[in-house]
């Protein structure tokens, strides 16, 4: 089979979605090889694309022809150097030039211009542009002049009318060429190549010198001809031909305008900006066809953005264009007054393009007004005058109801604020002139109104994209408010307060939902503009007569102090009827606000009850809409947590009773999409209603904790919450599981265990609990712990239950402390018996947490666990790593283990390493950790290993007379011979890492490692004292050829500097050594 036949077969297979996947992959691989070998396969590709004639081309598969163009593109774009090196470049280009030239004549001048496959036209124009880049100006200097005669050539035409096919092709070709040699968006998407950059510069220079005048004249001639024909048709005349009707002419005018705009930035402005072109563009700016108007707006934007050497020339350009006057007229003319349903989207797009043109002009004027660049006074004054004329136009676009139109002037507005902020920095007392302040006030009023929802929209009915778009807009507008606040804070806070208070004080049926929501949102937003102490704690909401000392803040009578402006806004919010407003968006924003500013309720406690009422009724956690309920669950939890001391104790049971109907756990499985789907993992992997419900269980725990003065009642209320959950848990573990499909009981047990853990989390940390007699609520949680252990024993083979048990016990341990110690051995046994390697990271994290909380209470458990666990982990780490996922799991396990053993050191539990049971394994353990420290392919693990080793030197090798000796424990935990390990292993390691060829001090992680090595060396000195100094100075450093004076300086610094100073010294030392 020939290569041509093979290509045809491969394209047919690759483009057929019904083909077998393996065969398709083979076909794609073959085609990739054909494309990569373009220097050899291009003649076949050329033949497949061009064919014998138009008939054969029409019969050929479009997939084959498109692939053929891809091969030619590869040749022309990426294989030029190969062609040149092979000495075949000129011959190849000549063949392509003649063959494709003949194809253009036959298909575009005389034919239908690929009417059966119009998308090929666009692809071919790109291919020909690439050939142009390879051959112009040296091999094909007549490129443009050879195309020009074809613009009016056609078979059988009685008059020299434009050939629409050739004209369209020519204009697209110009767009492609401009894109390749100048368009910064295209260039930034590629890697920088010096030769390509030089080629593009050379081509631009050559066009400017040889062909710019002719090309520009041809484009303008096309514009004039097509406009004349279009106007004639609009006046009632007949088209000159079937292919030049009104639709085709509009497309040609738009395309010619875009082509003109594409080369404006890089050819002489005297060609593109003339009285004739200005008149033509302004005429097109009012054309009935929106595409033409938009293309013209883009062309004018290119003109005003064109770089000119002299600021005075730029200012003169703006004066000649007089765009400010034109834009003012067009802004008024294009205002959209009808409803959105009746408005043409194209008209909105055109007005948006005018906004972009306004913004672009404004940005250029701002550059001319930049005093830092030192413009001549006349230029500065002239640009300032034009800018002031433009500002009102910009504000009208900003105020437009359509957000896309409004955001079109954001760049200009943003830069205005940059200029204003710079002026404030340079002249803080005089920067805010009356015109500036007036502009800021107008802008601020518009920004605040733009933050308002469209009253005709319903956020609940909008799709996610529309809702996210509005929230993004609000975020952008808030950043503008930040900018104005940086210029004049009082202006922003005053405007926000006034608008919000005006609505809140009349929050009745006459207020629309969008205004109501905005007023609450502004209360929410106000706090972001408070600076310093006014933004923190209670001081954000009240003004004490004098500063309150930190130790007296708890006893101060905060409720007697007058409210700050933000406090007044929140009080107005509490006193209004806004919380009862019958709209979800208003309710949600109300809850977001009270949830954010919990400290307000510590200075005005009388409003706590009202907020709780709204939170627990049908407006809040009992709202009929699930999405609202789920969000309010979190806000309720936050409010309870922040304001728990302000909640009257007598209301606790009432609140809990009102919640009982939503404290029922009901596990739900997702709908299966296939028989192979793992529904349990699917249910556990996606956040659902239950995940939000956990906030309620934690809130219940917090509320129950407030009943501490009534211990019996406290325990009874807690049991009333936990007993239904325990019954559900018992039912789940008693439900027979006979197949893999019986997963609902597992999911239910998982949920219930997590719910019980969340209840425990609501109680205070164990250190805050009452010492002495065990509180009754702890006995209840011990029953919970026992039930979880029973469940774990019955369902130990289920990872979901092991995960849930770790989750719950972590929270129970945190709240009950050592009262739960008796259950830890059984828990660890159950957790580790069935654990899979992927669970080790979570297990080690849980173990570290348990050790930190219980310390010596779990010494025996840790003593039994540490050696087999370490052996198991190092066996896992020794296995070959295959694939990215395996590598990530390997590294995560390594880090988790290093974190774990370091936690043991930090919690002064290191005696476990040298107990009778474990001391034999210590040498291999520290050797393994030292090997991790040396592995620079995983710098974060290396750093953690160095941290452990540094701590081990003091823990296991502390000499009684060394600087770090401080306690009798030193003798108890000292390991005979550990100092030998230090000198023979750790010291060479410390100096070997920075000397490694793969070590790069400029890398941030490597610098962190150097800091840890500095700590290690300092800890060695702390542990061994002068012995370490003597060893380094007299043995190790001389053996590595250190000059005596440098070695003496180093050990002196090691002994004299503290740890922080020595780390810096060592880092600087390594940096200077690397440089030399």
UniProtKB/TrEMBL annotation:
What InterPro entries does the entry give? ARM-like, ARM-type_fold, Exportin-1/Importin-b-like, Exportin-T_C, XPOT
The protein's predominant localisation is cytoplasm
Protein name stated in the entry = Exportin-T
Q: Tell me where on the tree of life, at the top rank, the source sits.
A: Eukaryota
Gene3D superfamilies per UniProt: Leucine-rich Repeat Variant (1.25.10.10)
**Would the keyword tRNA-binding be found if you checked this record's keyword annotation?**
yes
- Can you supply one Gene Ontology CC term for this chain's record? nuclear pore
Provide the species name: Rhizoctonia solani
Which segments constitute the Exportin-T C-terminal domain? 382-1072
Protein role: tRNA nucleus export receptor which facilitates tRNA translocation across the nuclear pore complex.
Query: Which locations, inside or outside the cell, does it occupy?
Result: Cytoplasm; Nucleus
UniProt signal peptide: none
Q: Which part of the chain is the Exportin-1/Importin-beta-like domain?
A: 118-290
Q: Which Gene Ontology BP terms does the record give?
A: tRNA re-export from nucleus
What GO MF annotations does this protein's record show? Answer: small GTPase binding; tRNA binding
- Keywords noted in UniProt: Cytoplasm, Nucleus, RNA-binding, Transport, tRNA-binding
Q: Which family does it belong to?
A: Belongs to the exportin family.
List, alphabetically, the Pfam families matched.
Answer: Exportin-T (PF19282), Xpo1 (PF08389)
